[in-house]
Write a structure and sequence with these properties.
By secondary structure, the chain is an alpha+beta fold. It has one domain: RelE-like (YaeB-like fold, 2-Layer Sandwich). Helix content is 29%, strand content 34%.
């Protein structure tokens, strides 16, 4: 399965500002997809509710990745990448 991964403008700016390689984020997304498939992968993922209904949060240390998974279209869109305190604002 070939997934297309999209980044919001905020996510791109955050990665550039903090000098975090995109590959690190894409690796977390691939782990999350594996977890959805039922593979035994150690990844902390949570379905969000309220304002973030339909999104999932991936926790990687102090980093938070909020993404929307559309498996019927083979697309993952990363809405927010931020540190622990600022991700949900």
């Amino acid at each position: 399965m070939n997934l297309r991964i999209g980044l919001s403008r905020q996510a791109e700016k955050f990665l550039a500002r903090n000098q975090i390689p995109q590959n690190e984020i894409f690796s977390a997304i691939k782990d999350a997809v594996g977890k959805f498939r039922g593979e035994d992968i150690n990844v902390n993922i949570k379905k969000l509710s309220g304002k973030w209904e339909g999104f999932h949060r991936i926790r990687k240390g102090k980093l938070r990745i909020i993404a929307e998974f559309k498996f019927d279209h083979f697309v993952v869109f990363i809405e927010v990448i931020d540190w622990r305190g600022g991700a949900y604002k």
